[in-house]
Amino acid sequence: MKALTLPGRSVPAAGTTPRPRRRSRRFNGPLLAGLILFGLLVLAAICAPLITKADPTAQDLTQALLPPGSRGHLLGTDRFGRDTLARLLYGARIDLRVGVLAVVSPFLIGTVLGLVSGWFGGWFDTLVMRIVDMVVAFPFFVLVIALVFALGPGTGSIYLAITLVGWVAYARIVRGEVLVAKNQEYALAARASGLPTWRILLRHLLPNVVLQAIVFSMSDIVLSILAIVTLGYLGLGVPPPTPDWGSMIQDGQQFMLTHWYLAALPGFAVVITGLALALIGDGLVERMNLR
Amino acid sequence: MSEVLAVEGLVQQFEGRYGLADRIARRPRPALRAVDGVDLVLREGETLGLVGESGCGKSTLSRCVVGLYRPTAGVVRLAGEPIAGTPTRAQRRFVQMVFQDPYSSLNPRMTVGQILGELLRYHRIVPRDQVAKRSRELLDLVGLPYRALGQTPRQFSGGQRQRIGIARALALEPKVLIADEPVSALDVSVQANIINLLLDLKQTLGLSMIFVSHNIAVVRQVSDRTAVMYRGRIIETGPTEQVFLEPSHPYTRLLLGSVPRLVTHVAAGGAATAIPAEPVPPAALPTATAEVGGCRYRDRCPVALPACATEPGLRLISDDGEEGHLAACQHVPG
């Protein structure tokens, strides 16, 4: 008599527990797409001199306002005859670098403050959260623009302004997560076993609370790039003639009706960057919910 | 038998929010006494069952004992030494806890090897080069394969996770194990395994144990003595069989769902009438604030007397063990 087995289904050997098939591989669709897109952008910024021979700041008024597809100028030139492709690529260097770096210090400061105030509570928590409330009361851009205006244009003041305003979001996120995590039994167990507080915070809580902050930082990079672009547009950003997407949009604006691509191309670059980072953020969320 | 753990007059009060507006309006400071004057003794090699409904203070009491809360009043003595403020390292090692929910009691970001190794290293249980070996021994104790060391908690079932939780508690080589509802989050089919494991370990390692549960049947099976808690107080305590066979406090009777046997305890001089087992449904349960005086059960008690407005304290019913059988009820002759 044949054993009663369903065709096409293997029976696990006795004594071994069949592992449930992992539902997700290390990379999911959005994460992979975002990483590839962002990787291409970074690669383009790094390899700028290999992609175009043109100098992004070299002016040539005889070659001004050429349309895309012109000889030697793939994406045309601006009103000073500077190569648009070169400016876009070298602008990416500035904007991506400042955008990513401007997220690092708010991330660190906000995470540490959120961790400490969430864990200890008390007057320190109250103080930190009141400062957070004060900063949040102002719109992000208004505050950043005001701060950069006060500090003077340049990358240094951009970093400082974004840090001063940006940490509050991380502090809030991390504090909220800590408030939940510190009453989880694993945190109680760590305390009951007498581990020192700094160790509980760094080894037990931080890895569990920092994920939300990392996910948020992806969209925050978009925000800080937008801030840099906006500042550049307002003339408060990276000083000219250094290429930057924001100042390119502003330069192109006056030729909107005749040479729309001058403003549209850097705008498109901003959109692509935002899309890439948003995809990475979504992908991370999806991956982390699977635990 | 010597006592390994003693709780004396323990009070744990939680303060509610008391803002500036409350202070100006001179509102009373909101406070909740989760544990309100508990005395308890655990002797060497003994299992003490702690039963009571949810919210009666069982968990708070056990957390006080492992030093997670600093008691508002009273002391916890470990081997005679009171915990003063923060427990010392030796005191941390002395009492360890097995937690209720194996799904939240293990850090999802650490492997089993990291969880155990960290404790072994920090408390210097074994020399550094012996940590891996000792971790494997711990897994042997709780019946898990060695490969568990490299795995994260999410790869285990509830029962296996609870085994990891027990191994973590045992890593510090405690003398006293507090098991706070160790099986209530598990499937019924695994509950017995975990309970038997705990009892085995208690035997082989010579542990004393406080077994906290709302599951009466389990407590009866595992514990030598049983203490019944109601709204922050112990209202009856004694050798398990006596408490279960001759419950004296009306609340214990309700809890055990038993028909009362000790009609003789009805007020002296009165006729020996059967006490109804069903409690009077309370009109509204007052919160366990500090102001409540007298017997906490009297608003639900079917046999409440005017005298119940004063706290009776634990009264001795019979004295055959070292502690005897005690109940806090006016119906028990004082």
How would you sum up the global shape of chain B?
globular
| Count of alpha/pi helices of chain B | 10
CATH homologous superfamily of the largest domain in chain B - what is it? P-loop containing nucleotide triphosphate hydrolases
The radius of gyration computed from the alpha-carbon positions of chain B, rounded to a whole number of angstroms, is: 22 Å
Q: Which percent range fits the helix content of chain A?
A: 55-70%
Rg of chain A, Å, rounded = 25 Å
Mean pLDDT of chain A: 81
Low-confidence stretches of chain A: 1-21
What's the total count of β strands of chain B?
12
> CATH-wise, what's the superfamily of one domain in chain A?
MetI-like
CATH topology of one domain in chain A: MetI-like fold
CATH class of one domain in chain A, please? Mainly Alpha
- The secondary structure category of chain B is alpha/beta
Q: Can you walk through the features of this model?
A:
The complex is a heterodimer of chains A (291) and B (334). With 291 residues, chain A is mainly α. Chain A has helices at residues 29-46, 48-51, 84-120, 122-136, 140-151, 155-181, 185-192, 197-233, 245-253, 261-288. Chain A has a domain at 102-288: Orthogonal Bundle (MetI-like fold). Chain A contains ten helices and no strands. In chain A, helix 1 crosses helix 3, helix 5 (140-151) crosses helix 6 and helix 9 (245-253) packs antiparallel against helix 10. Chain A is elongated. In chain A, 41% of the residues are buried. Residues 1-21 of chain A have low confidence and may be disordered. With 334 residues, chain B is of the alpha/beta class. Chain B has two domains: 3-223, P-loop containing nucleotide triphosphate hydrolases (Rossmann fold, 3-Layer(aba) Sandwich); 246-334, no CATH class. Helix content of chain B is 28%, strand content 22%. In chain B, the strands form two sheets. An eight-stranded mixed beta sheet of chain B has the order 6-7-8-3-9-10-12-11, with helices on both faces. Chain B has a four-stranded antiparallel beta sheet with strand order 2-1-4-5, with helices on one face. In chain B, a hairpin with a 6-residue loop joins strand 11 and strand 12 (325-327). The two termini of chain B are 28 Å apart. Mean pLDDT of chain B is 84; it is low at 258-275 and 282-286. The interface between A and B is medium-sized, with 17 and 29 residues.
